[in-house]
Amino acid sequence: MYVKVRVDEDKCIGCKLCILACxxxxxxxxxxxxxxxxxxNRCKGCGLCVANCPKDALVIS
Amino acid sequence: MMIQQxxxxxxxxxxxxxxxxxxxxxxxxxxxxxxxxxxxMAVAYPITPQSESMHLIGELYAKGYLKDYYxxxxxxxxxxxxxxxxxxxxxxxxxxxxxxxxxAMEMFPVWAGSRQPIVCAFMCRGVSLPPSxxxxxxxxxxxxxxxxLMFHAETxxxxxxxxxxxxxxxxxxEVHLPVGVFADGFLVTHxxxxxxxxxxxxxxxxxxxxxxxxxxxxxxxxxxRITRDPLLNKSNFISYAANASWHQEILAAADRARKxxxxxxxxxxxxxxxxxxxxxxxxxxxxxxxxEALRHLEKEGIEAGLIKIKSIRxxxxxxxxxxxxxxxxxxxxxxxAGGWLAREIKAVLDHNSRVVSGPRVFGGMTLPPELIAKxxxxxxxxxxxxxx
Amino acid sequence: xxxKIITPVEEFADLLPDEYKELINKGPFFxxxxxxxxxxxxxxxxxxxxxxxxxxxxxxxxxxxxxPSPEDTxxxxxxxCSFFGLSQAALNYSTTAFGNQNAVASGLKRMLTIRYxxxxxxxxVLVGDGGIADIGLDLTLHSWFRREKITTxxxxxxxxxxxxxxxxxxxxxxxxxxxxxxGKLFPxxxxxxxxxxxxCAYAVRVTVASPQKVGRAxxxxxxxxxxxxxxxxxxxxxxxxxxxxxxxxxxxxxxEAEKDYYAYEEFITAEAQDYLDKxxxx
Lengths: 61, 388, 282
Known about the structure:
The complex is a heterotrimer. Helices cover 40% and strands 20% of the residues of chain B. Chain B is an alpha/beta fold. The model of chain B has no long low-confidence stretch (mean pLDDT 94). By secondary structure, chain C is an alpha/beta fold. The B-C interface holds B 40-41, 43, 67-68, 70, 72-74, 76-78, 80-90, 92, 106-107, 110, 217-222, 224-230, 233-234 and C 1-2, 5-6, 49, 71-74, 76, 79, 83-84, 87-88, 90-97, 100, 103-116, 121, 138-139, 142, 146.
């Protein structure tokens, strides 16, 4: 089992703090509808995005 | 002021052009070589006895013969900077001696592993401790397996020619290895000798980085070049395989250099009196002393031959085997305590009990021809106590 | 570099991997992209084996995104942790012998200036604290004394991470680490202060808790190095693995340091500021 990040689009406000906290490139992207999207395959599950999200819109599971 | 120079091909400059006799020091011969070599950049650091050469190259830069030149902060830094400059795709030159060589040591396998056609002059001297600035070439033994090519100059004439020819040989696409051009310090650098020079208004063609077997590092040449560790961090297995195959390629490139050394240096070795049964085999200044020893022996009715080894890496194994096929006695005089040349020779010859490792002098002692002749006479007439 | 060099011809375009095509079409080459655009373009660093939560990885990623001209940037690194991400970067990158990065960068910059006198070739050193402050300190300082036009960026995790967590010159006094069983006996090396008096035209101390500041510092440092002189950026990039904290705390640890000994500071000479103002650069 791998731990991966998932975005709750309803809670996401598009502040991009998670994108600026992720040590791995091209994992979290900013979509046209001003929300963050996650590429599960690239995520290492460190949880920095979760820790930096002001709206609890991210979860690692 | 810099004079206008005309680009000519290496064949013409080195093998055909008419030469003028001059009477110059070995240090001046180095500068004369670099003047005609169309070098882009040189980096210098003081250490006896190579400083004078690098002063003169600084003056060449001031006149416009080189596009950049500076004094670095230590030999490790200088050799690293030369590595960086060569990565950028230009022709570079530097020099060092003895303790400086040892300080820079890590960079020599880096140069070879990066397949860089760098030419570095080594003006050999004693290494510490105790300190000695005088001639001795023990440092050469420490460079034998760095992957660099190694040429040993006997005279200032050799020093001049070998530096220029080193660029031509190194820059062959199938070679692309750094070359160390060695001369025994003071004996060659600080004495005046007759040196025949091609005209100073000739220069070699500029280095073409498109000839390199690895892409030049300038963000203009795909694929993007990455060196060293990246393979290490993907997988140790991949890095072992890459390192091993890369090193085999370096050894193969040195072998591929042989035909170019034959063409430009006239062979990896030279033989005087090929039919002799007794040979002195030497490199560098020991060859000059050996020539005198031959004359001594001749006066006493002893006929001996001389083999001058010009290329230490690649080593002239087959040529040496052939030249000594009928020899009964092979004497190897050297300017170092370790006897590295004798070891190299013993490793390639059958019946190597024929090989006598000596006489050896070190720390800056002179190597009298009488001492070399005595070594031979002792072996012929027997007995350690037999002294003339 | 011209666009032609990396753009595949139509006939072969579909043979190339998707990653490559994305890099050409949605990457930062020949466009002006910065930290503020992260998430909207294909980054030039790709998957790397840095630890989960690695501060150095974040520092390297932010630096790569902040390069003003990635198509004409060459990075010199050295062994350590920093090269994990850099060796997966879509630009010329060279790891050389440990500690010699600033000497190599000096030679490279000078040769590129000889060969491409009309173009900006940004030579950037991106290396950890061990490589710059300990084994490479001599060569780093001398490249500054000589006023080489290169940018030096330290990703400071205050430890030799890659070799298993040994004390480094940049570790704080008292910190217990491998090879310092009784705690480090002397203070953190003042490399940032040394930069100010050694000839740097611009020097910044910053942490990964302030990504926008990191981006601005890297960008300005590279622009100033083009014309004025050496520049230095010291980024605090804490290491969860060796400093032993949970990987999701990296940014928090950096933020705490910002309130203490890693406060933001920017040093700029009048000449460098003048250059930025005259050319409308930020």
